Amino acid sequence: MEKSIREAFGLKPVDPVRVPSLSLAYLGDAVFALFIRTLLLERRNTSNGELHSRTVPYVSAVGQARMAKGLQELLTEEEAAVFRRGRNAKPEHGAKNATTQEYHLATGLEALIGYLYLKDRQDRIIELMKAGMPYAEP
């Protein structure tokens, strides 16, 4: 999808290695949420309120941290480095309903998702999300 957006707006590819970790996390958060919302909608098309209630546990820092822990062994060296870069970033604000450790793990996962998205690796995002869903389930 990222490639199509670039082409539609005449944008040049971005080297994700040069993108700051928190910017990767910003993008990855949106991609992660879109994946979860699509999955939950397709599984059970119901009211917006119920869809939102089912989405929150997955997209929260706590849910993302659980998924991040479960995926560690599946990451390539490159992915693990991007994850660590995101996890170690110093955000401007702290976690609201999560521990600092959970917040950092979630940021690492979001950075990795953003990185893979910019590399046009939706196949790998899907693979990781599919493998990580059982860890994130409430």
Structure description:
With 138 residues, the chain is mostly helical. The protein has helices at residues 2-9, 21-43, 48-59, 61-71, 77-87, 100-118, 122-136. The protein is globular and about 40 Å long. The model has no long low-confidence stretch (mean pLDDT 90).
Keywords:
single chain; 138 residues; mainly alpha; Ribonuclease iii, N-terminal Endonuclease Domain, Chain A; 7 helices; 72% helix
Task: Provide the fold topology.
Blueprint: H1 2-9, H2 21-43, H3 48-59, H4 61-71, H5 77-87, H6 100-118, H7 122-136
Helix pairs in contact: 2-3, 2-6, 3-4, 4-6, 4-7, 5-6
Task: Give a short synopsis of this structure.
This protein is mainly alpha-helical and 138 residues long. Helix content is 72%, strand content 0%.
Please provide the count of β strands: 0
Strand content: under 5%
CATH architecture label? Orthogonal Bundle
Radius of gyration: 15 Å
The helix-strand sequence is HHHHHHH
User: How does the overall form come out from the CA principal axes?
Assistant: globular
The total of helices stands at 7
Indicate the CATH topology: Ribonuclease iii, N-terminal Endonuclease Domain, Chain A
The end-to-end distance, rounded to whole angstroms, is 29 Å
Q: Helicity level, as a percent range?
A: over 70%
Mean pLDDT over the full residue set: 90
* Structural class estimated from helices and strands: mainly alpha
Number of domains: 1
The largest β sheet comes out as: none
| CATH level-1 class | Mainly Alpha
Q: In CATH, what is the homologous superfamily?
A: Ribonuclease III domain
- Show unreliable segments: none
